Amino acid sequence: MILIDNLKTNKGENSSEFEAKVSNICNLLSINPDWLMMVMYMESSLNAQAVNKQPGDPDDDLTRCNNRATGLLQFMPDTAKGMGTSNSDLYGMSAVEQLDYVYQYFKSYTGKIKSFQDLYLVTFFPAAIGKPDDFIFQTSRIPAQAVAKQNSAIDFNQDGKISVAEFKQYLLKRVPAALLQFIVEKKSTS
Predict the structure, then answer these.
(1) Among 59, 98, 104, 118, who pairs with 113 as Cys (CB 3.0-4.6 Å)?
(2) 86-99: pLDDT as tens digits
(3) Are 123 and 43 in contact (CB under 8 A)?
(4) What is the SS3 assignment for 141?
(5) Conformational region of residue 111, where left means phi above 0, alpha means psi within -120 to 50, and beta covers everything else
(6) pLDDT tens digit string along 36-66?
(7) C-alpha closest to that of 132 among 156, 166, 107
(8) Phi, psi of 104 (to 5 degrees)
């Protein structure tokens, strides 16, 4: 894996065990391991205890994790519950342990993920996977304006909507240029 040398796990964990587990997961999912490494890095800096913080939230991560995105992929509480765990349980896990839930999250998309952008779409807004570039991020329960308001940095044209094309553009702007070549390739580089 190209990125493992550049993106290390926190808390002094065994990086070779982490790398082996990421490789195994990616083989099962038929995806490039560098894609998964980059998604986890962009979501949490590979910190299994990363917890999203919004204005007015308590400073204590453990308290906050019950209501906010947590872990390597920044799982939302309802997502964690749907996988048979909780954000407080995820918060207590090592990065290697959390990889079981990373795999579980992506497993149903095996064969549908054809690029780094697809993998990140599954992470960020799964309803958009396989949709054309003009697809607007919204659901019957979540209006486009709500998605754009919570993610204004992605709404490049500031029209109150986020399209797949804007999301792809946002991702590529966030990836360091030195690593870009490794995540846009379609075949595995491991």
Answers:
(1) 118
(2) 999 999 999 999 99
(3) yes
(4) coil
(5) left
(6) 999 998 999 889 999 999 889 999 999 999 9
(7) 166
(8) -55, -40
